[in-house]
């Protein structure tokens, strides 16, 4: 099986376009986007026009690639769903606890995204995906959040997906709460002992303790980072991964900070 894994975009469509230009999607069995589609690293780059382009691009990719494309949810994405009821035509009560996770997650930006992403599309974002013995998620899954019941890895993953759907449904049903899988750990200035799959900090909280290896983004790394059998591939829009026959190959975008750094060292 051949898998293309793309880490946090943070609205950098040039990074995504480069990958799509050099990689033939037809040669991959699965393509996984690890979440954090929105919110650029610098507040100076925040633009309603750009967030609209990003939302439209992700939607278009899903329409073209269908079930081959797995869209995961990141901590920079969920606040915009939490604010969905407050947008034009919204129904119910917004979850301001999640909606206020990040200062950049404004109602104006939520309006733009929710004009393109309907309820069904939001609900299609996943907390994790299990492919060829690898567990992909945005930030990583702590053993505390990995189900203990089930007679197989697939059974435990199915339980995790049910738990994800349960917590996702609580966002608007119980708008004054922060469901367990969306908890923020103390390493990211939260109150929980460790973060959930959207907030787990690779450096301080991630442990390669599950029965299967993980591939995650979320925590920006300055150097290639591996813990046990697991990998963090977020290098601030500099690398993406090809997973094949149990091997993980990191490819570098030449125009990224890492690509330029490597060229300067030659």
Topology:
Layout: E1 2-6, H1 13-22, E2 30-33, H2 48-65, E3 69-71, H3 78-82, H4 96-99, H5 107-116, H6 119-124, E4 128-131, E5 134-137, H7 153-173, E6 214-216, E7 225-227, E8 230-232, E9 239-244, E10 247-252, H8 257-265
Parallel strand pairs: 1-2, 2-3, 5-6, 6-8
Antiparallel strand pairs: 1-9, 4-5, 7-8, 9-10
Helix pairs in contact: 2-5
Task: Name some characteristics of this structure.
alpha/beta; Purple Acid Phosphatase, chain A, domain 2; 5-stranded mixed sheet; single chain; 266 residues; 10 strands; 8 helices; 31% helix
CATH architecture: 4-Layer Sandwich
Q: What's the total count of β strands?
A: 10
Q: Enter the CATH topology name.
A: Purple Acid Phosphatase, chain A, domain 2
Give the amount of beta strand, in percent: 15-25%
Mean pLDDT: 94
Global outline: globular
Residues in helix, %: 25-40%
What distance lies between the first and last C-alpha atoms, to the nearest angstrom? 34 Å
Largest sheet: 5 strands, mixed
Tell me briefly what this model is.
The protein has 266 residues and is an alpha/beta fold. The protein has 8 helices and 10 strands.
Give an account of the 3D structure:
There is one protein chain. The protein is of the alpha/beta class and 266 residues long. The chain has a single domain (2-139, 208-265), classed as 4-Layer Sandwich (Purple Acid Phosphatase, chain A, domain 2), CATH 3.60.21.10. Helices cover 31% and strands 15% of the residues. It has 8 helices and 10 strands. The strands form 2 sheets. It has a 5-stranded mixed sheet, with helices on one face. It has a 5-stranded mixed sheet with strand order 4-5-6-8-7, covered by helices on one side. Helix 2 (48-65) runs parallel beside helix 5 (107-116). The longest helix is centred in the middle third of the chain and has 21 residues, at 153-173. The two termini are 34 Å apart.
